[in-house]
C-alpha cells in the first residue's frame, strides 16, 4: 500500500459515510473525531470531503476513512456516488430541528438503495448540548432506530459528548461482522440487529489489508 | 472556431448534446435562458417588480415539480439562514463602513429577515448574514429553477462586501449567476460539462499525468468539483478571489464587447479572451501538483485530499500566469470540441 503514508499501519480499513440534512453538524462530528476540533462557523460542505483516523479494536488497528457529504438534496447525485464501498454510516439529525429527524427516513432509503444491505448504520442525534431547544425526544428517535434496526446515539460535537463512542461503536460492529465472516461463525442475533455478512468485494475500499482474513 | 461568439455557441451545442437523453427542460437551446421564461435575459428585466410572475412551459413545470417534490422555498429559506450565519468574515477589513455597522441596525435587519441564533455574533457578522438572506431569498424567487443551492452564499458574500446597496448587489449577483447557475442544476449538466473541459485541458497539456489519472479512474476530474462550483472561493483568500474573478470577468466582458482576438492578444501575449478562464486556472492548479500526483498518489482519495487542502496554499498570480499559458497553447483545441 505504497499510496498510504508510512505512519499508516493498520489491519483493517473501513469506509464510513456521514449523511443527513444540512447544518446538523456532520463536518463538526468528523473534525471532532479525527482532529478533536470544533468550529461553530464551519462552512457548508460542497460535494464531499474526507478524513481518517485509526483506532484499536481488540488487538487490531482499524483505520476509518470517513466521508463527509453535502447535506443539501441538490448534491445527492454526487454524494451518493461516494456511498459505494461504505460498510458503515452515521445518519445524523439535529435534536433541535424536528424536520431534520423527519428527513431521516429519506436518507435511510437513499443509503439502502446505494449500499450493501449489511451496512452498519447508526442514527445520530447531534447537538444534544442544546437541552433547552430540544425538539426530538430521545424516546422518539430510539423507537425509530429500533424499528429500522439501526444503532442509535445522541451526541454533541461541541461538548465532545459521545462522539468517540458513536464512531467507535460503528467501527467495532463492522469489525465484528468482518471477523465473524472471516471465521465463518454462525448466527448470533444478540450481537447484531440483522444479517451477519458484509460484502468485502475486491474493489471495496473496505477490503482487508492483510490476507487470510477474507479467504476463510 | 472563428468568431468570439462561436465559442459560446459551441458551449450551447455541447449542452444540448448532453441533454439529448433527457426530455425535460434541459432541451433549452440557450443555457443562459430558462426555457419558457426569458427573465434572465434582456435589459427590461431589471425591474424588480417583474420576476415574481413567470410563465413556464409544461416541461419546465414538470422539472420544477420534480425538484419541488424534495425542495421547496421553505427548505431553501432554512438552508440560506444556516449558510448566512456561517459565512466567513474575511471581507471585514475591505469594507470599513459595513464593518462599523451599529448593533441596533444589524439586529433590526436580522429581525426583519427572520434570522435566528445570532446572539453570539458580532454586529457586522449579523448584518452581513442578514444581507445574504435578503438577496439569496430574492434570487430564489427570481430563479426558481435553481432556487438556493449551497455554495451560492460563497459567491454572493464578496459581492455584497463591495456593494453596499442591496438592489445593486442583487442585480450584480443575477449577472454573475447567468453563468454560474448551471453549476447548481439538479441534473448536473453544467458541472459535468465544466469538469469535462478541465479533464480535456489536462489531457491535451500533460498526457503522462492524464494516463495516471486514468489509471486511478480519476480522469473525470471530480476531485476539482468544489473549485468549479464555488469558483475557487474556498481555496483562495478574499483578496485573491476578487482578483481572479475580476480577471475572469474581464475576459467575459471582452467577449461580450466583441473585442477581436488580435487586439486582445497584443495586450496579453497572445492569450485570447475565453469564457472558461476559471477552468484553465483549475487545470493549472492540478498541473502544478503533477509530480506529486504521479509519484506519490495511488488513489482518487489522495487527490481529493490534496485538492481539499489547497486552501491558503495558492499563489493567484502564478495561477493566472499558468492559466494564460494554457489558454495560449490550448484554446484552439479545447474550444473546438466544447
From TrEMBL, chain A:
Keywords: GTP-binding, Lipoprotein, Membrane, Nucleotide-binding, Prenylation, Protein transport, Transport. It is found in: Endomembrane system. The keyword Lipid biosynthesis does not apply. SUPFAM superfamilies: P-loop containing nucleoside triphosphate hydrolases. Pfam families: Ras (PF00071). GO terms for molecular function: GTP binding; GTPase activity. Transmembrane segments: none annotated. It is a lipid-anchor. Its main location: membrane. GO terms for biological process: protein transport. One of its GO terms (cellular component) is endomembrane system. Belongs to the small GTPase superfamily. Rab family. This is GTP-binding protein. It comes from Gossypium davidsonii (Davidson's cotton). The lineage of its organism: Eukaryota, Viridiplantae, Streptophyta, Embryophyta, Tracheophyta.
From TrEMBL, chain B:
GO terms for molecular function: GTPase activator activity. Coiled coil: none annotated. Residues 23-32 have a biased composition (Acidic residues). Residues 1-252 form the Rab-GAP TBC domain. Residues 9-19 have a biased composition (Polar residues). This is Rab-GAP TBC domain-containing protein. It comes from Gossypium trilobum. It holds the Pfam family RabGAP-TBC. InterPro entries: Rab-GAP-TBC_dom (IPR000195), Rab-GAP_TBC_sf (IPR035969). PROSITE patterns: TBC_RABGAP. PANTHER family: OS08G0547200 PROTEIN, TBC1 DOMAIN FAMILY MEMBER GTPASE-ACTIVATING PROTEIN.
Amino acid at each position: 500500500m505504497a499510496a498510504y503514508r508510512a505512519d499508516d499501519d493498520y489491519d483493517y480499513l473501513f469506509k464510513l459515510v456521514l449523511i443527513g440534512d444540512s447544518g446538523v453538524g456532520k463536518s463538526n462530528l468528523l473534525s471532532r473525531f479525527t482532529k478533536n476540533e470544533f468550529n461553530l462557523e464551519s462552512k457548508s460542505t460542497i460535494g464531499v470531503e474526507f478524513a481518517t483516523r485509526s483506532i484499536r479494536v481488540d488487538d487490531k488497528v482499524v483505520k476509518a476513512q470517513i466521508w463527509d457529504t453535502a447535506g443539501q438534496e441538490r448534491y445527492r447525485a454526487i454524494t451518493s456516488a461516494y456511498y459505494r464501498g461504505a460498510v458503515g454510516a452515521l445518519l445524523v439529525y439535529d435534536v433541535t430541528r424536528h424536520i431534520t429527524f423527519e428527513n431521516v427516513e429519506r436518507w435511510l432509503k437513499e443509503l439502502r438503495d446505494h449500499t450493501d444491505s449489511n451496512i452498519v448504520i447508526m442514527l445520530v442525534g447531534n447537538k444534544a448540548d442544546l437541552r433547552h431547544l430540544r425538539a426530538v425526544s430521545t424516546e422518539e428517535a430510539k423507537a425509530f432506530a429500533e424499528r429500522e434496526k439501526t444503532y442509535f446515539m445522541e451526541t454533541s460535537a461541541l461538548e465532545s459528548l459521545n462522539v468517540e463512542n458513536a464512531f467507535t461503536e460503528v467501527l467495532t460492529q463492522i469489525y465484528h461482522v468482518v471477523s465473524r465472516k472471516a471465521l465463518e461463525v454462525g448466527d448470533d442475533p444478540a450481537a447484531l440487529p440483522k444479517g451477519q455478512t458484509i460484502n468485502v468485494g475486491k474493489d471495496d475500499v473496505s477490503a482487508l489489508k492483510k490476507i487470510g482474513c477474507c479467504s476463510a | 472556431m472563428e468568431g468570439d461568439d462561436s465559442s459560446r455557441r459551441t458551449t450551447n451545442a455541447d449542452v444540448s448534446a448532453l441533454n439529448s437523453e433527457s426530455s425535460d427542460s434541459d432541451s433549452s437551446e440557450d443555457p443562459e435562458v430558462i426555457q419558457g421564461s426569458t427573465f434572465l435575459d434582456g435589459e427590461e428585466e431589471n425591474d424588480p417588480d417583474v420576476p415574481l410572475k413567470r410563465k413556464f412551459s409544461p416541461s419546465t413545470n414538470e422539472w420544477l415539480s420534480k425538484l419541488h417534490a424534495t425542495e421547496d422555498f421553505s427548505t431553501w429559506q432554512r438552508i440560506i439562514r444556516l449558510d448566512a450565519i456561517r459565512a466567513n468574515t474575511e471581507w471585514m477589513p475591505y469594507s470599513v463602513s459595513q464593518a462599523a455597522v451599529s448593533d441596533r441596525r444589524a439586529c433590526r435587519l436580522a429581525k426583519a429577515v427572520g434570522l435566528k441564533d445570532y446572539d453570539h455574533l458580532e454586529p457586522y457578522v449579523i448584518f452581513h448574514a442578514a444581507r445574504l438572506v435578503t438577496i439569496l431569498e430574492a434570487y430564489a424567487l427570481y430563479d426558481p429553477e435553481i432556487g438556493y443551492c449551497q455554495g451560492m452564499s460563497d459567491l454572493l458574500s464578496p459581492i455584497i462586501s463591495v456593494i453596499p446597496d442591496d438592489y445593486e448587489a442583487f442585480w450584480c449577483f443575477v449577472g454573475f449567476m447567468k453563468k454560474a447557475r448551471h453549476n447548481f442544476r439538479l441534473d448536473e449538466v453544467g458541472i459535468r460539462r465544466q469538469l469535462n473541459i478541465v479533464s480535456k485541458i489536462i489531457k491535451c497539456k500533460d498526457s503522462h499525468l492524464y494516463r495516471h489519472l486514468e489509471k486511478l479512474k480519476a480522469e473525470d476530474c471530480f476531485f476539482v468539483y468544489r473549485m468549479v462550483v464555488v469558483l475557487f472561493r474556498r481555496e483562495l483568500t478574499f483578496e485573491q478571489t476578487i482578483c481572479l474573478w475580476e480577471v475572469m470577468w474581464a475576459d467575459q466582458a471582452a467577449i461580450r464587447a466583441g473585442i477581436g482576438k488580435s487586439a486582445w492578444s497584443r495586450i496579453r501575449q497572445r492569450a485570447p479572451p475565453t469564457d472558461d478562464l476559471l477552468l484553465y486556472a483549475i487545470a493549472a492548479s492540478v498541473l502544478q501538483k503533477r509530480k506529486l500526483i504521479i509519484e506519490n498518489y495511488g488513489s482518487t482519495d489522495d487527490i481529493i485530499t490534496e485538492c481539499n487542502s489547497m486552501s491558503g496554499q495558492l499563489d493567484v498570480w502564478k495561477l493566472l500566469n499558468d492559466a494564460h499559458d494554457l489558454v495560449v497553447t490550448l484554446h484552439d483545441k479545447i474550444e473546438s470540441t466544447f
